[in-house]
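Title: Prediction job returns without error message
Component: structure pipeline
Severity: low
Priority: P3
Assignee: unassigned

Description:
Job completed but the reporter wants confirmation the result is attached to the right record. Sequence as submitted:
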Amino acid sequence: MTDRVEQILRELDRPVQPREEFRDRLLGDALASLQATRTEPLARRGFPLFRELVAAATLLVVVIGLVVGVRALRASKLSTPSTASPSVSISPKVSAAPIVSVIPSKMVSTDVGWALELGILLRTTDGAVHWSVVGPPYLPDSIAPDTSAYFLDAQNAVITETAGGNSLSLVSFRTTDGGQTWHQGARVAAPGLGGDGLSPRLYFTDDLHGWLLLRGGIVNGQPPSPALYGTSDGGLHWSLKSSKLPSPLGCLAWDLAFVSTSTGWLTTICDSTQARSSDLMPSLLMTHDSGKTWQAQRLPLTTSDVICSCSIDPPVFVDHQHGILFVRGSPGALFVTSDAGSDWIPRLMPSGPADVVFTDASHGWTIAGYALYHTSDGGVSWAPVHTDLLAQGGNIEGLVFVDQMNGFASRITSAGSSQLLKTSDGGITWTVVRSG
């Protein structure tokens, strides 16, 4: 990869490339290097905090290094605008990069979906066969590619970018037309987004109301200090909700979700060396005032149920009343709610689940061990799916279902190549959408 970076830097003597072309090339290089790391079966992965943080930081340093290197050499060739444009029009195009390893972040229909891969924002309109690079142009003082995104539907999305200057800040961009036009939001100070920082998290309940979790980073040797912001205009302006988010010893604020403009949850991830008692299990925090104050919400979970390192995924709601919550660990635990999260009921799962996805209150899928399972009663019972998904070996890297019949999966074959697969019969048969 070093030779490739040097080649890119040498080519800066050529006319400056638009952002989309640079992203295409960066994506091609980054995905190629990432390909070699996707070898461990998803169902057998652990989630120790510091291993994940080191991996994320290493990847971030590589990508930031590329962007900063390019920007430093471009500085003598370009004049820097004093202010960023509040709205920029771009023309999406099918990427020329070998995008063969994309795992959709969200498929809003069988045709339209979004993905954020290594800081590159992508969109498909043909069922994941082709992907267009649709992110907003870089800010003049951008020091990192897009770090987080939230996709509401086929047209509406919000993405953030880290900017430098005298101090680090976060800038959000909003699109209402599938990425053709982006509106730039006001800056939010974010001193913890340096090399040791964690990428932010976004969540929206509609096209106007959303939250931004700055998970913080190590600043002057001090531990992370997360902060929560809210917006009522689609991310154009943010106001501080709380700068004192509770976090148990050995745990960090990790992710968030809301079921309404007032009620939401904050989840944590815990370090295996400290989270050994029931008091130090990852916590689920709940708010009823849009994030200003938080209280712990106890789950019927003990260390005999899940061995840490462990984390709680943010709740996923399929409507205003029904949702699921997944605790990652060994073996993992599933909870469901039918009263908007007031109570969480445990559900049994197949041994060793790596992930779980539901399309409504009844229908869900999970990969456990080397088998695909399906439930049609909200997780009360699970049945193996007689599928060809796992027959050819390799590792399943992601599982996304749009409805009861249509879904997508990404597989790394035993030879190291990538395949994006699609099903239209509930997971029984799968066809290759693209490979490489």
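Comment from assignee: result matches the submitted record. The chain has a mean pLDDT of 75.
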